[in-house]
Structure formats: structure tokens, C-alpha cells
Amino acid sequence: MARLANRIALVTGASRGIGEAIAIRLAEEGAHVAINYTSDRSRPLAENVKAQVEAHGVKAIVVQADVGNKRQVEAMFQEVNDKLGPVEILVNNAGIAPFEPFLKVTEETWDRTYNTNVKSIFLCSQLAAKSMIEKRYGKIINVLSTASLVVTSPVIPHYQSSKAAANMLTKGMAIELGKYNINVNAVGPSTVDTDMCTDYLADPEIRAKEIEANPMKRLGTARQIGDAVVFLASEEAMQINGHLLMVDGGLTVKAAQPDDHMEH
Ligand code: NAP
Q: Distance, CA 258 to ligand 1 centroid (Å)?
């Protein structure tokens, strides 16, 4: 029996990368999926994800919205509600990581990063919670990062602080919404080879260092993040609330040591 049969899910930023994998994993478990994206050029990508989702015998729609924009978020929820029904599983995945050093970050970059990575969670979760409270059922899962806990490479404080803020937002929402049988949790990927990291990982030396730095000696995959999201959306996780499940190979529990290069 599919674990999420006939549940209605909305995945933000699902046209590619980690969001795409999450949408497909949810569909594999029987959920109907709304696939959000924002840029016009990504419409064909979102349509491709829709086809992959539908191949699992569930319903899918694509819905364009900038998740940092209240008016567009409201229109998105209305469309999902009209076409699929009230959102029962919300995955706040959309995010950006402008690779700019602290001294060069503009106010525009700062605002765009926080609007996409933090404000979006506030806007989408507040709207989703309304119908979840009525149903006394809901799962909100935020895609955070190792950067929610530690400063990772490359050092981009606007991104890292946004992911740390989103971690505390997750915990606060979990406390407030738990009494309505709404679980609010998060997953924390380490580096995954998506468009977000294409330029960064294109340097073979950096890619090798990323792999070497990880205790599992490999990069994570988008599907592994989808697996963790499915678990948190399932009834097996019904008593897990306010938790950040790291899917990082143990990277954030390991402090850099002077003998890191030595074989043990
Ligand atoms: P990605 O490949 O760059 O994809 C980003 C997705 O977010 C796209 O679907 C994009 O839509 C969407 N998006 C961006 N801004 C948006 C907005 N304002 N409104 C709606 N959608 C928006 O990124 P990814 O690597 O899959 O990352 C997904 C999440 O995982 C992010 O929150 C990221 O911070 C987190 N994460 C990633 C890594 C990694 O190494 N990749 C590691 C840790 C955490 P369009 O296609 O329309 O642009």
C-alpha cells in the first residue's frame, strides 16, 4: 500500500533539482502533486516533471509563482485548491544561493535570498496551515541545508543565515501547529549536484575536496532528499515534530581536524 495514497502535496521549486526528485518520490507513494516553479523558461521542465509524476498514476498540475511574493502565493494556493484540493503535504523546497562573497552582496541579493529562502516558508506555511487546521492533518517539510547549522563552503553568509533562520522558523511553527496534528519538520542536505552547484562543482579540485570532506566519501543525491521527505510525510514519522533531519553523510557532526588528511 502506498504510504501517501491520495494525499495532496505541493512542492515549491519542483521544476528541477531536489524539488523534482521530491515530487517524483511523493508520486511514487501515491500522492497527487502540484509542481511549483517561477521562471518562464522553466515551464517545459515543470511540464516534464508533471509527466513523470503522472506516470505513477496520480494527478499533477504545474503552477507558476514566485514563492516570495504574497499575491502570487495566494493565487498559487487558490489554483491548487481548485484543481487538486486543499494542500495536505507542503514541501517548502524553493531556494536560491547566489554565490557572492559577503563584501560584494547587494541589498537586492540579500532581499531576494531572504524572500525566496525564508519569507516563502512563512507565506506558504501560513496559507497551508489554514486548511490543515480544519482537517486536523498536515505535514510541512522545509528543505534546509548543512548551512542551517554550520558555515559550509563556499562561504556565503546571506544564504547560510537564511537557512539558519528557516531552521528556527521550522521549530517555532512546529510548536504552534502541533496541537492541530500538523507536523513541521525539515531536511538538511549537504552538497547535491544540481543546477545550484553546477559552476561550483565544475572545478574538479573542488568536487574532489567536497567528496573527501564528507564522512561517507560521496556527494548526496536529490533522490535521497526525496526519501527523507517521504519519511517525514508518512505516518511512521507522526511523533516527529520540529526536527531537522540531516541528510549530509555526517558532515555537520564532524569538526575539521588537523589530521583530516591522514588515513586511519
Ligand atoms: P536548483 O536546482 O537551483 O532548483 C531551484 C528550484 O527552485 C527551481 O525549481 C526554481 O524554479 C525554484 N525557485 C527558485 N526561486 C524561486 C521562487 N522565487 N519561487 C518559486 N520557485 C523558485 O536548486 P536545488 O539544488 O534543487 O535546491 C533546492 C533546495 O535545496 C533549495 O532550498 C536549496 O537551498 C536546498 N539545498 C541545496 C543543496 C545543493 O547542494 N544543491 C544543498 C543544501 C540545500 P525555476 O526553475 O523556475 O527557476
A: 34
